[in-house]
């Protein structure tokens, strides 16, 4: 029987790599996102289906349910962004702008994950998998983005308890990962070199590295792994 996966933010970068890996694993994949052209192109290239909606919008998520699979074996919550990297600024002393930035990061990374999960939870199959993407920033800090990514971890612990005996819920936390839209052309060569020097493996991560970790957590071999955080960062964070 073919499994079905739903991957949010699946049009580019890590989300695309995850979707492509799951297709290679023999899973029927549906990717979601806000950009119709990008989603359509990716879906055609990797052999997936696509549904366009904004995962931070409750009405949009609700409206999209008619287009989403009735049974979901694997849910990957990948949608999210570092809003400062996307150009949302908070000049020193501008508290209104600071509030806007923090709320935008929380909405993009946490609310999107919670809304989609709650919406499709009734469709999650027995022995299903919920895998949410956090970040090394959640433990090492990064403005408003780090705390938003950190919030996914305790939420996931509660979800794992809620799903106990029915499905697993885990988090994958990538470190510095290139070949994505994350840095949005804001990463200087000097900063890139500095970050790489902090990685024991000697290289930045690739989307495929994260995809392999998700593939494992989605597999039967990870049936006894739940409520956990799998760090994929080349040793850039060692738990201390």
UniProtKB/TrEMBL annotation:
GO terms for molecular function: oxidoreductase activity, acting on the CH-OH group of donors, NAD or NADP as acceptor. InterPro entries: NAD(P)-bd_dom_sf, SDR_fam. It comes from the Bacteria. GO terms for biological process: fatty acid elongation. Belongs to the short-chain dehydrogenases/reductases (SDR) family. PANTHER family: 3-OXOACYL-[ACYL-CARRIER-PROTEIN] REDUCTASE, CHLOROPLASTIC (PTHR42760:SF40), SHORT-CHAIN DEHYDROGENASES/REDUCTASES FAMILY MEMBER (PTHR42760). This is 3-oxoacyl-[acyl-carrier protein] reductase.
């Amino acid at each position: 029987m073919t499994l079905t996966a739903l991957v949010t933010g699946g049009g580019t970068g890590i989300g695309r790599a995850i979707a492509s890996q799951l297709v290679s694993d023999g899973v029927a994949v549906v990717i979601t996102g806000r950009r119709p052209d990008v989603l359509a192109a990716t879906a055609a290239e990797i052999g997936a289906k696509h549904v366009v909606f904004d995962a931070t919008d409750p009405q949009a998520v609700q409206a999209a349910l008619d287009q989403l699979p009735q049974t979901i074996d694997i849910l990957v919550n990948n949608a999210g962004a570092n809003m400062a990297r996307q150009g949302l600024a908070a000049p020193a002393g501008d508290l209104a702008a600071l509030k806007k930035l923090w709320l935008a990061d929380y909405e993009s990374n946490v609310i999107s994950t919670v809304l989609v999960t709650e919406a499709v939870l009734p469709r999650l199959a027995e022995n299903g998998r919920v895998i949410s993407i956090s970040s090394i920033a959640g433990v090492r800090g990064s403005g408003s983005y780090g705390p938003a990514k950190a919030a996914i971890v305790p939420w996931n612990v509660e979800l794992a308890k809620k799903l106990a005996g029915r499905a697993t819920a885990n988090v994958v936390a990538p470190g510095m990962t290139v070949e994505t839209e994350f840095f949005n052309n804001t990463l200087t060569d000097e900063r890139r070199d500095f970050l790489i020097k902090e990685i024991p493996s000697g290289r930045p991560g690739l989307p495929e590295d994260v995809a392999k970790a998700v593939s494992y957590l989605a597999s039967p071999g990870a049936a006894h792994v739940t409520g956990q955080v799998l760090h994929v960062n080349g040793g850039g964070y060692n738990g201390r």
